[in-house]
Design goal:
globular, binds 2-(butylsulfanyl)adenosine, seven-stranded antiparallel sheet, D-amino Acid Aminotransferase, Chain A, domain 1, alpha+beta, 5 domains, single chain, OB fold (Dihydrolipoamide Acetyltransferase, E2P), about 675 residues
């Protein structure tokens, strides 16, 4: 008996091993599709499901967790502090050249040190100077063993767990011929788009934004919790080596060799001959600076021949064979003349500084965002202050700091606004939020397009055909000033649109009219009340049964509902308390908008059954299929488990289908699902 269970264990383990290798191959492939090729083949949710499955297997059989397993990238346990790392060779810095003449002087020094004859031309490698932080990677026998920061050049910090989360850094080198010990050096940075997203998210979560992508990258790498780092899409460019025996003869060759081993190198590096070509390359790169997806602060010129590099050697802190040509700084000093309040499409009121115009790396800057009032207080920004402003990529310039010692005493503080500067509705910030918002959602012009697009969208009022293109036109023609105006539109008004025919206008009017009888939960969702998503809207519709009842609900009644927390309740109350919103609701009512209460399909044909969708559903689309199953009382969940009754597999179904088969769960095609629903379905593509 015991022998049998031992045998079971061996079989289970070998099956787990096979599945783990299969998952590893799949995850690596999809990782490359996403991060290297920019062409994902599966959804994020499917990718996450594979990763979770692999993690579960490794948890059960820890010996499956190899050092180069993709799970090593998700971030392990937080550290208490970073350990020290001594660099085998010091990590040097670079001498700077601020002007073209200094670049030419660099060549003169190189020529005289090497005693080169005039007719011999020097080849250089020109590389962007990435604006991030220097990191050393150590590979032993092709496996990533350690990663460290530069520190003071001699001793840095061990940030291996954090670096492992960067998906473009190989955990195992590819190809062959790599030395037993390979030390690679490069710059870790945060691409601009990720930087902007991160700052937006930080503002939403009430944390101070990073001043620039370099600070964001450095702050991320110095996080003690690798799981936090794993959520920040950092990247790396390798630009050199530490200890290595190389067969390469040039810097260019060395970079190609690193790339062949799977290490990320710059796609902007250029090999040039003679210093004048290097100067031209520098001017070229400066022009391209603002169109690159990452921040660079200059260009590094390196003598390409590694033998010459060796001959030139190093000074105490920098090599004699390279120079950093710096771009003009993106920082400048100026004065805040006035602070204006700008209202965004989501109602957030942002303080913006009108500046004394100042030249910043070739652009005249006269405005800077101050982000929010927490930031204003933290930096103690006042109208009239002398400030340092910084421009990072194509981001609007930000005020980095106030020159406090230059204050005259006449500077004025800016109080937090209590009313919206555009529509006059109440403005407030919710507990724990940094953003001050206008509460007049339905009647505030800057929020108009967004609120109407959401109102008409498929999951909300489902006004077929009324997309953002028509909505923008309706607004610019002055035909619609709030959602209630939609119900007053006439055929003639639609006919003013470009390429609008009788039939199309009629269809649009019919769709608008049909939405008057839309389900209550969709109507509540359509109002765009902050924090009220589809699920909460459903709960509210079931609980209150009419918009009048919901409008009259007290904070206590609202918070007593499961799924409605205090922040949601406050947001619902402030929405219905705003007179501007009340007026719009009244006009909707007068126009005949009378949402219906959907009967609860407790006894629907699919009641009690749980469905999972995988792959692409070509006829229905996932949202429609989900809606149909739910309308018959069925449940739709995201992952396959023993509790799943049916897996509906579309084309290119992934691991969920395999799991369903392994668990013996019934698999349906899309046609079989339709047959099961067996009624005329409205198909929205
Ligand atoms: S070479 C021995 N190449 O600039 C020379 N550095 O100001 C090592 N940097 O600490 C540097 N891009 O962090 C080199 N393409 C590039 C670079 C680069 C950015 C950084 C690096 C270094 C700093 C020196």
């Amino acid at each position: 008996m015991e022998q049998l269970s031992l045998l079971d264990d061996v079989v289970a383990k070998s099956e787990a091993g096979l599945r783990a290798s299969e998952l590893t191959v799949l995850i690596r492939h999809h990782n490359d599709c996403y991060h290297k090729l920019d062409a994902p083949e599966i959804s994020d949710a499917e990718f996450d499901a594979m990763m979770r499955e692999l993690l579960e297997l490794e948890e059960k059989w820890p010996e499956l967790a190899t050092p180069d397993s993709p799970t090593q990238r998700v971030g392990g346990n937080p550290l208490e502090r970073f350990a020290q790392v001594f660099h085998r060779l010091p990590m040097l810095s670079l001498e700077n050249a601020m002007q073209e003449d200094e670049i030419r002087a660099f060549e003169q020094r190189v020529r005289s040190l090497l005693a080169l004859p005039d007719e011999m031309v020097i080849a250089y490698q020109c590389e962007p100077k990435m604006d991030g932080l220097a990191i050393e990677l150590v590979y032993r026998d092709g496996l990533l063993e350690q990663a460290s920061t530069r520190g003071n050049g001699v001793v840095g910090e061990d940030v291996t767990a954090n670096i492992r989360t960067i998906r473009t850094i190989p955990l195992r080198l590819s190809g062959s011929g790599f030395p037993e010990l390979l030390e690679v050096r490069g710059e870790v940075y945060l691409p601009l788009q990720a930087f902007q997203q991160l700052n937006q998210q930080r503002e939403e979560e009430g944390e101070p934004p990073f001043a620039n992508p370099r600070n964001a990258a450095a702050g991320s790498i110095r996080q003690l919790d690798p799981a936090v780092v794993a959520r920040r899409p950092l990247a790396m460019v390798c630009y050199g080596v530490g200890m290595i025996e190389t067969e390469s003869r040039t810097q260019t060759g060395l970079m190609s060799q690193l790339a062949a081993w799977g290490l990320p190198v710059s796609d902007q590096a250029r090999q040039v001959t003679g210093i004048e070509e290097a100067v031209a390359c520098f001017l070229d790169l400066q022009e391209q600076r603002d169109s690159l997806p990452y921040e660079i602060d200059g260009m590094v010129i390196k003598v390409d021949d590694l033998r010459l590099q060796q001959e030139l050697g190093e000074k105490s802190r920098s090599p004699r064979w390279a120079i950093a040509c710096k771009f003009p700084p993106r920082q400048a000093t100026t004065r805040i003349n006035e602070i204006i309040l700008s209202v965004g499409r989501t109602g957030v009121i942002t303080p913006v500084a009108n500046l004394e115009p100042v030249e910043l790396s070739g652009v005249t800057v006269s405005r800077a965002t101050l982000h929010n009032w927490d930031e204003i207080r933290r930096k103690d920004i006042r109208v009239g202050d002398k400030v340092i402003v910084e421009r990072a990529g194509d981001v609007i310039p930000a005020v980095v700091k106030v020159l406090l010692d230059q204050r005259s005493g006449a500077e004025q503080e800016l109080p937090e606004p209590e009313v919206c500067p555009v529509c006059g509705s109440k403005a407030a910030r919710e507990a724990g939020e940094v953003a001050v918002r206008c509460q007049g959602g339905l009647a505030c012009p800057p929020q108009l397009a967004e609120s109407i697009i959401h109102f008409a969208s498929r999951d909300a009022m489902d006004i077929d055909g009324l997309g953002s293109k028509y909505i923008e036109q309706l607004i610019s023609l002055g035909l619609v000033k709030d959602i209630a105006d939609l119900y007053q539109l006439t055929r003639e008004e639609f006919m003013q649109f470009e390429r609008m025919g009788d039939k199309l206008a009629e269809n649009l009017l019919a769709a608008i009219a049909a939405s008057k009888q839309q389900e209550l939960s969709r109507f509540i969702f359509a109002l765009g009340i902050r924090h009220v998503g589809e699920r909460t809207a459903k709960t509210l519709a079931e609980r209150f049964g009419s918009i009048d009842n919901l409008q009259a609900a007290t904070l206590e009644e609202l918070t007593s509902i499961r799924d409605v927390g205090p922040a949601v309740a406050v947001s619902i109350r402030s929405f219905f308390d705003a007179p501007a919103n009340q007026a719009v609701l009244q006009r909707l009512k007068e126009a005949g908008v009378a949402p219906t209460v959907e009967e609860k399909r407790v006894g629907g044909r699919l009641a009690g059954l749980t469905f999972v969708f995988t792959g692409t559903l070509t006829t229905l689309g996932r949202d429609e299929a989900k809606r149909l199953v739910e309308s018959e009382g069925g449940n739709v969940t995201g992952s396959v488990s023993k509790k799943t009754d049916y897996v509906v597999a579309g084309s290119e179904a992934g691991s969920k289908l395999e799991k369903a088969r392994a668990l013996g769960i019934s698999v349906l095609s899309e046609d079989e699902l339709l047959a099961m629903l067996a009624k005329d379905v409205k198909i929205n593509k």
